Each structure stands twice: as C-alpha cells, then as structure tokens.
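Why this split exists: single-chain examples teach little about how molecules sit against one another. For that reason, every record in the complexes split bundles all components of an assembly together and asks for one structure covering all of them. Below is a record exactly as it appears in the raw files.
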Amino acid sequence: MSKSLKLVAATLLACALSAPAPAQQKADAKSGPRYHIGRVPTADEIRGWDIDVRPDGQGLPEGKGTVAQGEKLFMDNCSTCHGEFGEGNGRWPVLAGGKGSLTSDNPVKTVGSYWPYASTVFDYIRHAMPYGNTGSLSVDEYYALVAYVLYLNDVVTDQNFELNKKTLAAIKMPNEQGFVMDDRATSEKSFWQKDPCMKDCIAPVKIIGRAAAIDVTPEDGKEKKSRGVE
Amino acid sequence: MSNTDNQSRRSFLATGAGVAAAMLARPAAAGGNPANQPPNVPEWTKSLGEGVAVRPYGKPSKFEKDVVRRDVEWLTASRESSVSFTPLHELEGIITPNGLCFERHHGGIAEVDPADHRLMIHGLVERPLILTLEELKRYPRVNRIHFMECAANSGMEWRGAQLNGCQFTHGMIHCVQYTGVSLRTLLQEAGVKTNAKWLLVEGADAAAMDRSLPIEKALDDCIIAYKMNGEALYPEQGYPMRLVVPGWQGNLWVKWLRRIKVGDQPWHTREETSKYTDLMPNGKARRFTWSMDAKSVITSPSPQAPIRHGKGFTIVSGLAWSGNGKVKRVDVSLDGGRNWWSARLDGPVLDKALTRFYYEFDWNGEPLLLQSRVQDETGYVQPSKAELRKIRGVNSIYHNNGIQTWHVQANGEVENVEVA
C-alpha cells in the first residue's frame, strides 16, 4: 500500500471511529453517521403495512361502500358491543349521539359530537376493528362501515350515500373547530412560581369528601359494583 | 434438637409462666409465631433450603404475595382493553420491578415472536429501512431511566376522592431503565427528508395503535427500547421493542413497535382526537397535550399502607416527577396544605424520572391531612385540586396532577379525602 493510500485508509478509519458520537443534529438527510445495518423494504412489504390515512385523504385506498351495505355489516360485526344504533352496550363505547353535551356535566364524546375528522374513523376501524378480529374485512366493507357510522351520526343522511376516497376526504365533521393546541404554558402560567408558600398559605381546611363514602375501591377477594363513571 | 423435642418444648412453654412474661415484653405489633422467635431458633435455621437453580428465574418471597398489580373491573368493558395499576404503596426507591409495571392494552398482550417481528421505517426518508430485533441491537446503545405515566393517571379523581389507595389513584406510572437505540440514530440511517415534520408510530398488537409524534421530539430524546431494567421487555410492556418518549404521556410509548412513517402533517388518529384530548369547561378540547405536568404523591402512609406502629418516629415516603425535567424540591404538609415542610430527596434525581422523597417526623397520634407538593426545575409548582379545577373544570379526564390528600386517622388508618 502506498503512503497516500495508507493516509486515506487512516482517515476513513478515523471517520468511522468518530462517527458514532453524533452531536445535536437537525432533521437533515445528509446529517449523521450511517451504519448500513438492515435493508430496504420492498414496495410490496411497505404496501402490506401502509394502512394509515390522514384528514386530507392521503393514504385512503381505492374502494367504496354505501350506508345500506354498512348497516348489515354493522349488525353482524359491531352491534353486540356498540348497540344497533351506536348507543353502546354496557361500558362499550357509544358511537352516536351526545350533540351539544360537551359543556354539560356529562359530556358524551361520540364520532358525531366530538371527532374532528372522518378519516380518523376509517383509520381506527381498519387498524383495530372488529374487536378481536382485526383486519378481517375488505377495504370496501370498511368504507361501508364508516359510511354507516357517519349515518348514525347524521354526518351523512342518505342511505344510498357511497363512501370512497374522494367523498370521505370531502366530509367536514361538526366538531372540527372544537380543538385548540395545548396552551398550558400560557393559560396555566400561574402554576410557575419562584418560591412556593410555606406558612399559613390558606385558611384551615376541612374534609369535604371521602372515597370511603363512594365505596368503589376494589378489595382483594371482594366484588364491587360499577358506579358507571369514565 | 429433634422435631418432636421441639414440639414438646413448645407445648410446655406455651402453658408455662415463662412464655407469658416473654410475650408481654415483646412489642405488641411484632406478631408472628413465637416458636420462630428468640430465644427459639426457627426451622429455616435448622434445615437446608433449596439449592441453586431450583428457582432458575427468581421471584419475590411467598410472603410478598400481596405486592401485585390490581385492576378496577368496573372501569372498562373488557380486560383486553383495560389497565392495571402499579402497587406504589409497596415499593421504594425509584425503579419499578418489571413484573409490577402497570399495564394498559387496547387489544390484549401481543405475544410476539422476535424472529418474525420487523420494524419498518418509511415515508419521507431517503432510504426506507426494515430491521429485525438482532439488527436493531447492532446499533449504538443508550441507557436511560425514565418514568412513564398514563395521561389518565388520577383521572377518576377529577370530581372528588373516589378510590382508596395510591395504587388506584396514582398507579398508572412506572419508572425503569431502558436500553435501546436513539430514535435519532435510526432516522439518520434512513435519511429524513427536509420536509419531514411528523412521525406516525404504530404497534403490532391487535389494536395496531398509531400516534403522531412531532419530529423535534423524535430527534431529541426518544428511544426504541428492547430492554427494561437490564432484561428483555416484558410482553405486556411491548416485547420485543417499544418506543420511549421521555416526559410525555404513556399512550405515545407505542408497544410492539412495528412501523414508523415519516410525514409532513399529523395524522389525527383516534388516540389523539377522540381520546387523549382534554375537554375544557367551554366545550373546547386541548389537543396534543403530550407532556406530563409535575406531580407527586405520598405512597406511605396511604390507604393501603396505614401506620401500624402508633405514635412516635414516622417516615413519610413518596414519589415526585415532572415531564419538564428534574424534580427541584418537594414539600410535605400535615394540615391539608396550610403549612409546608421541606422533604428530603434521596437517591438519584434524574431528568424525567421518578424521584424518591422522605419526610420524617414524630407523630403525636393526632389525625393528619397529609399532602405533598413538587416543584420542578422549570419552577412549576404542583397545583391544588381546586386551582386545577378552576382552569380545567372536571371533564378533562386526562392530566390530573392536583395535590393528593390522605387523611391519617388517630388509629393509623388512612383514607383518600377532599379538603377545602
């Protein structure tokens, strides 16, 4: 090996040795060391797992389903837990209703009253439903089910409405404007203090409520009744 | 001495005047079987115990069988989509044993064969990547101790004291040492494109849970972990790999992690819209409330860990933590928040990790209203429940970090109460 080649090799080695100590780096394609461990997945491998969808419709697959088709699927696959009209059996999630309840003492958060985007319904159902039989339905069947859930919530009103990648992305949900970014740093600024109070901070206090009075704590070997709270 | 000899001697002593005097001299609370106590020699001193590797994987003493995770059956419709709680009242220090870390599943515990598990990184990257567990382990490793708290921890307490025990009021938290690969390392390997802003992280369980994670956090301190407290992740904690998102709500720490997709917008998945958004009194909901506010709780005495020794020197032991960084100080009140005394931090005080505190005092046997209050290094002081409700109302479900009150009664029993 010539002297210059040796120098090149030594430089490469030094790079390799110093590489695994990355400093603070930005999201940049060029930054950071590479280890060349793992491989590139095939297009087929990505396609099989790439099932997420976004509010703007990105990720929605080709396919279609109507409210009427969804109703039958819902009765067969979903109503045992969610009830025939999405009212929820027992403690299983309520899917419909609850409009105008968000400021009440008992907010009912459903697809219609709360969920900001229709795409979320498709994304979630395709990821996790039917409960215990995940991913068992076809894309068309998922479209039909989502159409029926939207129908239960009066987001669509026509039994013949066909949901597909175009019509789904166009849907506006009633509570889309019901969300704000986390604002704790400003709205709760008073929680940051220099010196917390140590003496005579508040007037003497009294007990105004006891967990024992509600009596819903599990005890080993004892059954407790549901109080039906979230 | 033969067993028969021992038996007869014990019967003799039990009826004799000598043992009566000995019993009187023994502290009333000690209890147990006098035959195993001085001046007698217990069975385990007189015979051999089990040899090595009879217990190839050790477990706690049979006398610790009550130190277990518990659930609240009425909370959820099924155990596959439910939560169990860490027995904080029985634990000390800052590390949670692997078998006691609280569980939260959305589709049960996935029993993943690591030989078949794959982690895929794709989307806005120069080089999509698919890795086996063995390949992940070839990347440079980091070790970090972090707490992980469910955003709904203490969520049942918004409307008032409801559950009698810190296991139930605060037990959706654990703190372990993770070993894994910095997420930044893998994102650099894949070559994140300049327009990348968000990651979708997704699990391989029956819920295939997916969440959006901002790229700033992903490149900051997130880890893809495959070990906890030195051994492989437990199945209920995401074996063979999970995401660690220090200081942020547990729901983001996707277990059984199978896929990371890089994108330019958030996905607004079910877990970050219909769940894990905080409904305020005006009907609007806060979204992307990722970080966990500073919080503390006294773990002993507490309803499941009453004071058994009567008045005298008493140890108050508790935990404090903050998603914003390190714990700076903890104060303890004996009178429901009117007066406070500084607690002593003991053991490591780490970034976004549980911190152990103690307050030792002479209890005069009178009832107490015990509270703890943490301040973190950013100056944030844990608010009272009243201060919290004034801003957040009682419908937010998530992020209840209000000060907890335990009522210690004269007999040493402890109950969860609300004070005003």
